[in-house]
């Protein structure tokens, strides 16, 4: 039974089928050879270690990057929390100072402070002064 090409919906030639199966068999053999050498009863060969050393170094570098990124993120979160608490405290300070200022600027408070200076509050309304100019 000939295999069908799923893209063009045509049957594949026997040559193409053989090439595909040969390539698949080669990949299976390479994988089996690697697993046999890696999991063999012998000690891990120095050739295998030397051959995979760049990959192990790359994995170690990725691990270090992961750890440093995690520390950086945690420090950033701590700093954000600290600044948030500081903003809340400054908001409370602003509100209390604003309330105190509003109390100190009321008319009765100003009159009390003016009394200590010897100034008195006016009881009569202000007088309007008019300047009369003569026409020449």
Looking at this protein, list some descriptive labels:
136 residues; mainly alpha; 3 helices
Summarize the topology.
Elements: H1 14-38, H2 46-104, H3 107-116
Total beta-strand segments: 0
Distance between the termini: 128 Å
Q: Name the beta content range.
A: under 5%
Structural class: mainly alpha
Could you report the average pLDDT, rounded to the nearest whole number? 85
Report on this structure:
By secondary structure, the protein is mainly alpha-helical. It is built from 3 helices and no strands.
Quick overview of this protein structure:
With 136 residues, this protein is mostly helical. The chain has helices spanning 14-38, 46-104, 107-116.
């Amino acid at each position: 039974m000939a295999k069908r090409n799923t893209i063009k919906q045509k049957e594949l030639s026997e040559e193409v089928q053989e090439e595909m199966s040969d390539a698949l068999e080669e990949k299976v053999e390479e994988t089996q050879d690697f697993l046999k050498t890696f999991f063999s009863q012998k000690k891990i060969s120095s050739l295998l270690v030397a051959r995979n050393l760049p990959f192990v170094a790359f994995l170690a570098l990725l691990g270090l990057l992961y750890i440093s990124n995690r520390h950086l993120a945690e420090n950033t979160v701590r700093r954000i929390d600290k600044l948030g608490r500081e903003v809340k405290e400054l908001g409370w300070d602003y509100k209390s100072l604003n309330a105190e200022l509003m109390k100190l600027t009321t008319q009765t408070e100003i009159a009390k402070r003016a009394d200590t200076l010897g100034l008195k509050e006016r009881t009569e309304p202000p007088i309007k002064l008019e300047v009369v100019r003569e026409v020449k």
